[in-house]
Each structure stands twice: as C-alpha cells, then as structure tokens.
Amino acid sequence: MGRQDEIVAERIKKLHALRKLKINPYPNTFDVQDSSRALHEKHAKLKNEAYVKGTVKIAGRLTSVRDLGKIAFGTLYDGVGTIQVVLQEKETPEKIREFFKEFVDMGDFVGVTGNVFRTKRGELSVMVEKLELLTKSLLPLPDKFHGIVDDEERLRKRYLEIITNPETRETFVRKSKFWETMRSFLKERGFLEVETPVLENSAGGASATPFATHHNALNLDVYLRISMGELWQKKCMVAGYPRTFEIGRQFRNEGMDAEHLQDYTQMEFYWGYANYEMGMSLVEALYKTLAKEVYGKTKFSYGEHEFDIGKKWSVIDYADTIKKELKIDIFNATKQEMEKKLRELKQEFAPTLERGRLMDLLWKVCRKKIAGPVFLTGQPVEVSPLAKRNPSDSRKVEQFQIILAGTEMGNGYSELNDPFDQEERFQEQRKMKEAGDSEAQEHDESFVEALKYGMPPTCGFGVSERLFSLFENKPIRECVIFPLMRPLEEIKEKHEVKKNG
Questions:
Q1: Rounded CA gap, 372 and 288, in Å?
Q2: CA atoms of 57 and 76, how far apart (whole Å)
Q3: 111, 266, 284, 444: which could form a disulfide with 204 (CB 3.0–4.6 Å)?
Q4: 166-313+372-479: CATH homologous superfamily?
C-alpha cells in the first residue's frame, strides 16, 4: 500500500468513526458572517498580541495543519483569501481541541467561531472557540510547495491547481473582471445586451469550419455558431435597436494552438449610424479601459513583443504593408504569382485556395513582425465578404483590425447593408465552398431578405478571450478554467499501446 492509499484509508476510518458518534461529516450549511479579506482590511492596524472583542464566524478549507501539542494552527482559505486559525490550551475548549486532533485533516472544510487577534509574529488569526467539520476530505491535497507538476494532470484537475496556486486563482478573478469591465463599458454607452441563437441552420457571420450536430425534436441538422450572432445582431439593427452587443461562447472546429481553441468566449457589438472610423475610436478607448481597470497598467509583453496600450494607436494599410515587406502588389499580382511568393516564404497552402485566402496568408507573414498597437485598414473585398466597400477605392472595404504582439486582437468594419452587393458576395463564397474551401461562408438568404427591409449604416466589431490571454502573457488554454481534455481512458490506452510496442 502506497503512502496516498494509507492516507485515504485513515481518512475513511475517521469518516466511519464520525458517523458512529452521530456526527454528520457533510452537514447542509454554516452561518458564515465574515470573510478573511474583510477581517484583514478591518484589522490592518491591530497591534501584535492584541485581541478584538466580539466573535467572528468564518468558514473554508484548511490548506495546512500543524499540531504542536498545547497549540495547533491551521490556514483557512475561504475563497477570497486566507487567515490563520489557532487552537490553544486554556483559550480553546479541550473538547474542541481533541476533536480537531482526532478528526480534522488538511483539505477539510471547517466552520470556525472565535476572536480575532494578532500573534507575537504579527499574523492576524482567529482564536477558535467553536469548530464544526463541514466536509471531510478523503483525498490529500497536492504538496503546497510543488503543486501539480504534470501539465496534463494540472489542466485535468484545475480545481487542485486553483487551491494550491494563488496566481492561477487570481487569473480567473481577473478574467471575470475583464468581461465585466467590457460589459459595463458598453452599457454605459447605451449598448443593449442581447442573446442570439447558439444552434443555427447555417453557420454564418464568419469564415470558419463549424461543428455540426442534430436537433432531434425538429429532426434538423444544425451548427454551433461560429460568430457571436453577427447576422442576428444585424437583424436587430434592421429591427431598430441602435446599439447591441453580446458576450458568449462560440465554436470553431479548427486547429488548436497557443492562440486558438475550438470553444471560447467572444464579444461582438453593432453600432447603428456609425462607420468603421467611429468604431476604431470606441475600441481604442475600450482596450485602454480594460488595461487600466483590470491590470492597473498599459504596458505589456507577449512572446518577443512589448507594447503600450496607452499610447496613440497608429494606422497601417493592408496592401501597402504587404508590398513594403514582401515586395508583391496583391491587387495586381496573379494567383500564380502569390502562390510563388508563398512557396518562397515556405508557407503551406492548399492548391484550391482563391485569391482572398492567398492574400490573407501573405498578410499573416507580415503581421508577425508588428508589436502594435496598430489599426490595420484597407483590406481587400475578397477577404471580407460582410464589410462595406470603401467609396474611394472599390477594391477595398471599410475594415479595421487591431494588431498586438504580431497577432490579430479584434476585427471590425462598416457593415455591408446593400442587399444586392451582399447577395453577390455570398454567391462568391458559395463557389469557394463548392471548390473545397471549408471555411467559406454560407449563403444566408434570410439575412439578405432582412437587408432588403433596410439596415441603417452600422459598425460591427468582435474580440475574443484571446485578448485576455495576451494581457496575461499566457497561452489561451492556460486562461480557460476547465479546458477540454481527451478522456483519461483514451490516454491510458495509448500509453499501454506505446509501452507494449
């Protein structure tokens, strides 16, 4: 029997003993009246060895336990912070101290009633008068100094990493604040939060490969959305709502790397009577607010890049940047010339790709070198089937993308509201799909019909939680509280096959 098995066996033995004593190891509730954070704030100036009159009631998990005979210590984590609890001879009833020594282990949830004091060494603590076991922990927690060292296990058992690693715990506190700050920013400016369908008859609003599933009640093949309700929110514009936004999950059945996941959180807003230039101004203010409110700073680093969100953002042109960096004019180059350039750059591509996809691959080579923050504008019509054409250059659309640390961190444009132009572009996308491009957009006839009723000039914009991972300077998977993992049985099976040759 290994050490862990011995610990589990001993804890189960305690569990049975508690039940024989008619003590419920899993009671229903505890009257929590205080938090560790509030106690630390309230008694920040309490002197060493000073006591506070009046009892407090606090509950949480014991992340450490030390029994020194006449005195015992525990560290109690209540979800917002930690505080020391002390059981001392002559201060804590003997019955409580005996119960603690016999039945309580590190990892257990306990409720404590007692007096706040500061120790000789300056540690704010609660002298225990009463203690209730709230949940008996059967499996031991990881070593608090080393935590979980195996990445596979760490992500699979993220709840343990959150218990043992304060930095991981704070990451997801910041993530909550990140989205709440964005939500508040938009609501303060008159945007209405809406909810649009997750299941769709056709995957529209973006160029991506969707997840397909079946709706049993309606006997329909449907798709999980690949955009944050883009076409639905534009129908809200048709309906007369002047400003809408949605924050939710969307799904793309594509590759996984440090910047991409298959299901993730996205925000999209649609602003009636605004164009892409107005959108750029709003988004710059949004990003600066996120940086200051969530992180209290504007300078960040990600990979090899450093950037300052707080400075004035510059604007660069799509075709001009490619021409400057790669010495190729995408508007005048043939499909064969762009393919040749990509081969020179050692970029892989499918032979069926149309001009728009080839242009996009060339741009992505240039993008990697840009620290930002910059706005990319002047995108070709071929790469943006839902954006309005630039009236001064019909080859381009009124689009803007935010470039930070060599990657795209947000995309917006003056929305196309000409139903005939939209119909023509959908038809081009259909040809691309028929030619084998799985990311080409679906032809959504209901959306074209809605446009025929009239949609006001509109600016749309979207950004995903990839922006949060960039601010954190971490791979996006590290910024998902419970990332999708392969089934454990599949991993064990592969390991056995590899082991046995």
A1: 13
A2: 12
A3: 444
A4: Bira Bifunctional Protein; Domain 2 (3.30.930.10)
